Amino acid sequence: MLAAVLLGLPFVGFLVLTIVRRRMAGGLAVLLTSTGLALSIILAVNLPEQPVALHANWAMISGVAFGITFRLDALTALMLVLVHFVALLVQLYSISYLHDEPKLARYFSYLQLFVGAMLGIVLAGNLLVMYAFWELVGLASYLLIGFYAERPSASKAAKKAFLMNRVGDIGFLIGIFLTYYYFDTLEFDALTTIGSGTVAPTALGLCLFMGCVGKSAQFPLLTWLPDAMEGPTPVSALLHAATMVAAGIFLLARIHPLLAPDALVVIALVGTVTTIWGGYSAVFQTDIKKVLAFSTVSQLGLMVAGMGTNNVAGAMFHLLTHAFFKAGLFLSAGAIIHAVHTQDMRQMGGLRKALPTTFVGYSVCAAALSGLPFFSGFLSKEAILGGAFNWSSEQNSNLSFLVPVLLLISSGLTACYMVRQWRLIFFGTYRNEYVMIRQVHEPDWLMRGPVVVLVLLSVWFWFSLNPLSAHGSWFFRIMPMTEESTYWWLAPVSIGLVLIGGWIGFRMREPKKTYSYVRLSLEYGFLDTFFQHLFINPTLKLATLLNRTDQRVVDKVVDGAGVSTVVLANLIMVFDRFGIDGIVNGAAWIAGRLGRLTRSIQNGQVQSYITVAVVGLLMLLWWLL
Amino acid sequence: MQAVDSQFFLFVGAALFSIGLAVVLLKRHAIVVLMGVELMLNAVNVNLVAFSQYDPDRLQGQMLALFVMVVAAAESAVALAIVLQVYRHFRTAQLDELNELKQ
Q1: Which membrane topology describes this protein (chain A) (predicted)?
Q2: pLDDT grade, residue A217 (50/70/90)?
Q3: Is residue B103 included in any domain, yes or no?
Q4: A349 pLDDT above the threshold of 80
Q5: B102 chain-A contacts, CB cut-off 8 A
Q6: Is A603 in Cβ contact with B102 (below 8 Å)?
Q7: CA distance linking residue B40 with residue A337, whole number of Å
C-alpha cells in the first residue's frame, strides 16, 4: 500500500507539474519528494524481517501469467531513502539554480518522472517490471540531458545517451528472455532460490549484465556519460548519484544469484577496465563537469568490480557513500559554474577566498571521493578492495591479482585527478577575463544548504564509528558481507597511493593538448572515434547505400510501374475511343444512315410510294417469270 | 373482214397502261392522276375486249369491260369528290405538296 503511494507520488507529480505555473512548480516538487522521503523512512523503519512481495496479475499469454510484482526488502528500503533524499536535495537546489529558466515547470516534471522511474526499478519485484521502469529511466534521462534542447550539443548528447543505453537494453532484454527460457519465471523471489541450487548459464548473466553496462556507463559503453553533462548541473548530480547509473549497480545486486562464476569474472574485468579507463580519462579533462563525469565512470567501474568479486554488500555500500559525495561534488560544481559562468577550469583558479563554503564542501567531498580516511569514501573503497583481494586469493589463476591491484591503482588515480581539479579551481591565480573576481560570490542558502547536508553525510561517522574500517557498520548488519577482509596492509597501502596520487595531481604541470597521452585521456581512449569508425560510419554508409538503392531501384521500379500503368491506360484509352467507341458509334452511324435512307423513301409522297410499289411488283414479276 | 391479230390489242393495251401509269406517277395534279387511272382501267378494258373474241358465245370479257366502265364512272365521281374536299382542305390539289402520310 505504502509502496504504491510511494511509486504513485512522482508520477502524479510528473503529470501535475506539467500544468502548474512555473513559480509553484519547485515548491510542489519539493513537497511531493519530501512526502515520499518521509513515507520511505517510515517504510524503512517498519521493514518486515522477510522480503515482502506484492503481486498482481497483469497479462495471461497462452496460459502463462505475467504479473506485476513489487518487492520490499532491506535493499529496496535503502535505495528508496537514498533516491528520495538525493532527489529532495537536488530539487531544493534546482529552485535556486534554475530560477531564471522559463521551462521550469517542465524541468521539475521531468525530474519527478526520473525519480518515479528509478523508484519503480527499486521496487520492482520481477525482471519485467524492472525492465519497464528501466526504459522509463532511459526516457527521463533523455528528456533531462536534452533539456536545453535549443543547444544542438545537448540534443546530440541526449540522443547519444539514449542510443547507447539502447545497446545495453537489448542485451538486458535478451537476458530476460533467457531467464524465462531457463527458469520459467521472472520473479526475483523465485530466481534467488533457483540460482543457489543450479548454476545459471554464463550467457544469461552476461546478457543481463549488458543492461548494467549501458545504464551504468561501463566499458565500452561509457562515452555517453561525459556527454550527458550537457544537461543542467543538478540533473547531473541526480543522474550520477541516485538515479540512472545507480540502476545498473542495483540490477547487479538483484540478479547476483543468477550470475555464473565465468560471468562474474567478466564483470570483474569489465569493472576494472572501466575504472582505470575512466580514471585516466579524467586526468587531463579541462571541463569541470567532465572530470566529475569520468570520476563517476571510474567509481561505477569500482562498484561493478565489487559485484564481480562477489562483494554485493561492499558495492552497494560504495553506491550509498558515492551517492552523497558525488551529489555534493556536482552541486558544488554547479555553485562554481553559477558564480563564474564557465565550465572551463582553465578560466577558474584562486576561488577558495571568493567561495569559502563551496571550497570547504568541495574539499570534503573530493577527499571522500579520493578515499582519504575519516571520510565515507575511504570506508566503502576499502570494503570493495578487501573483497577484491579475498576474491583473487580464491581464484586459481595468478593473473586474478591484476583486478584488485588495478583497482588499487585506480584509487591513486582518483586522488590524482581530484586534487588536480581542486588545485585548478581553488588555487593559483584567477584566470577568467570575462567575470571579475569581485563579482564572484557564493550562491544563496537554497543552493548552499543541500551542499552542506551532503558534505556532512560524506564524513565517516554516519556509516561506521571506526574511521579506518567499516567493520561493524550498521550497513553490513542489514546487508551482510560474505566474508570480512583481513588484510592489515590494505589501508596503509591505499592511503599511501592516494597521497602519492594527490601529490602528483597537485604538482603536475598542465601538458600541451597535442601530446598523445593527453589526447588519449581527453578523447577517453578514442572510444568515440573507434565507435565512429566501427559502427557509426558503416551504418551511415549503409544508410546512404540503402537510400541510393531506394532512390535508384525501388523508386525506379515504382516509377516504372506508374509510368507503365499510365502508358497502358493510354493504350486502353485509345482502344476504347477507337475500338469500343468506334463499334458503338459505327452502329449508331449505320442505324442513322439506314434511318435516313428509309426516311427518304417514306417521304409522304403518294406517287413515290406507287413508284416503289410498281418497281417492286415488276421485280417480283421478273423474278417469278 | 379479216380479224386483227390479238397481239396488237395487247400492244395497244400495254401502251395505254404504260401511259396511264406514267401519268399516275409523273403528273402532279390529282385530277390528271385520276385521268391516268382511267387510262389504265381502259387499257384493261381493251385487253378484256380483245380476249373476248375467244369466247364468242358468252362474251364474258365484253361484259366485264362494261362493268369496269360503270364502276370507273362511279369511282371517278367519288374520287373527284375527294379531290374537291382535298382542295378545300389544303387549298391545293398538287400531290407533291400533300405529304400528310409523312406525319
Answers
A1: Multi-pass membrane protein
A2: confident
A3: no
A4: no
A5: 602-604
A6: yes
A7: 137
Rg (CA), chain B: 17
**Measured between CA atoms, how close is A582 to chain B, in angstroms?**
32
Burial A594-607 (b: 16+ CB within 10 A, else e): eeeeeeeeeeebbb
* Preceding peptide of A220 cis, ω within 30°: yes
Q: Is residue B73 part of a domain?
A: yes
Residue where a domain terminates, one of A463, A487, A522: A522
Task: Indicate if the pLDDT at residue B77 is higher than 90.
Answer: yes
pLDDT-derived band at B70 (thresholds 50, 70, 90) equals: very high
Is A397 found in the same domain as A275? Answer: yes
Cell numbers describing residue A386: 578487501
Cell of A427: 588555487
**Residues of chain B in Cβ contact (below 8 Å) with chain A:** 21, 24-26, 33, 95-96, 98-103
Q: How many CB atoms lie within 10 A of CB A335?
A: 25
Question: Which of these, A290, A284, A286, A299, lies nearest to A414 by C-alpha position?
Answer: A299
Number of structural domains in chain B: 1
- CA–CA separation, A369 and A260 (whole Å): 31
CB contact under 8 A, B102 and A609: no
Burial (CB count within 10 angstroms: exposed 0-12, middle 13-18, buried 19+), residue A120: buried
Hey, is A354 helix, strand or coil? coil
H-assigned helices in A184-232: 188-197, 202-215, 224-227
Q: Is A485 left (phi over 0), alpha (psi -120 to 50) or beta?
A: beta
CB pairs under 8 A between A and B: 29
A109 lies in some domain: no
Distance in angstroms (rounded) separating the CA atoms of residues A252 and A311: 11
Closest CA to A203 of A187, A179, A223, A219: A179
Whether residues B24 and A607 touch (CB distance < 8 A) is answered with: yes
Q: Please tell me the distance from the alpha carbon of residue A226 to that of residue A248, in angstroms, as a whole number.
A: 17
Instruction: Please check whether residue B7 is in contact with residue B70, taking contact to mean a CB–CB distance below 8 angstroms.
Output: no
**CB neighbourhood size of A371 (10 A):** 27
pLDDT digits (tens, 9 = 90+) for B81-94: 999 998 998 888 88
Query: Best mutation site among A606, A611, A617 for testing chain B: the one with the most B CBs within 10 Å?
Result: A606
The pLDDT of residue B1: 55
Contact A607 B95 (CB under 8 A): yes
Q: What is the length of chain B?
A: 103
> Domain of B33: which CATH number?
1.10.287.3510
Residue type, A452: V
DSSP assignment, residue A344?
B
Q: Is A609 on the interface with B (CB under 8 A)?
A: yes
Three cell numbers written together for A563: 509510368
- Determine the structural domain holding residue A563 and report its residue range: 532-616
> Which residue among A477, A504, A522 closes a domain?
A522
B34: cell is 385520276
- A419 plus A500 within the same structural domain: yes
More confident position, A15 or A588: A588
Question: Residue A194 carries which side chain, given as an amino acid letter?
Answer: I
**DSSP 3-state of A65:** strand
The H or E element containing residue B98 is none
State how far the alpha carbon of A497 is from the alpha carbons of A372, A488, A494, A505, in Å: 10, 15, 5, 12
CB atoms within 10 A of CB A43: 18
Cell of A523: 578523447
Measured CA to CA, the distance from residue A452 to residue A468 in angstroms comes to 23
| Among the partner residues B21, B33, B102, nearest to A604 by beta-carbon distance | B102
Structure pTM? Answer: 0.73
Q: How many Å apart are CA A494 and CA A383, to the nearest integer?
A: 12
Residue B57 structural domain: 6-94
A87: its cell numbers: 532527489
Cell numbers that stand for A47 in this block:
521493514
Q: Number of folded domains in chain A?
A: 2
